Amino acid sequence: MASPLLLDREFLNTLEQVALLCSDDLAGGLGADRRSRNHGPGLEFADYRGYSSGEDARSLDWNAFLRLGKLFLKVYAAEQNITVRILLDCSVSMDCEETANSKFAYAQRLAATFAYLALLRLDTAVILPFAERLGKPLVISGGRNRFYPVLRYLSTLSCEGGTELIRSVKQFLERFPNPGMVILISDFLDEEGCTRAVEMLRSAGHDFVLLQVHSAEEQRPTTFGELALEDAETGEHRLVECSAESAALYERAFLESTDRLERLALRYGGRYARAATSIAYQDFVFRALRTNRVVS
What is the CATH number of domain 80-291? Predict the structure, then answer.
């Protein structure tokens, strides 16, 4: 499949040893990483997954170990299932850069990564694009073999319209009232709307993660002089004078806004991580997301 969304095969193989972390409440008392599994007579075998130290060894597949030299657990259909909903910002501001490595392409890869992690654990993944309103979702389950439709779906998405985060979250809660894990991927330029959106997600009982994606230029501008700026979503124009000193002040204000966003997430029991598109998405997943307890 020739697609910019095709995740590196080595990266996908490494994800076999990674797990999404969710709250104890959603995991039904099984613990944040859901490593305790229900096994016993009459349960239907569904798939394999990598073995992690401390897990129940009774379901190890020793034949697979003799053939491959690796430990695999048999996964049964009766295991705890968590619905992972991925809200993906498709507003124009996500794709305003003249580069193949835009914020939107980066966000698409992250959405694909989380969907793959959900499918690995036989969870249900729901991808919901949004901008001015919520778009048509993809709901998918059935294990890692169902990953190709995720890539195909993500490749059909494009950016248009402004950001209406509050309206989109309201529509999401109307369609998906049952608590689950929500991963909200956005540049969060609608900072005012984010506060109310987070309040609504938490009030509905969702375990949520805010993933902010931004370019290096959005953090610290490198183009100086008199600049004509255009708001990608509203079309508003403004003339500004940018110097090294004003760029430093702007960067300070930008970092203060990301700190506010992180404090907001933590105040309502969620998690937050920030990804600059200059950082490889593989490094972001394995380092930043682990540091912020999004994956293990």
Answer: 3.40.50.410
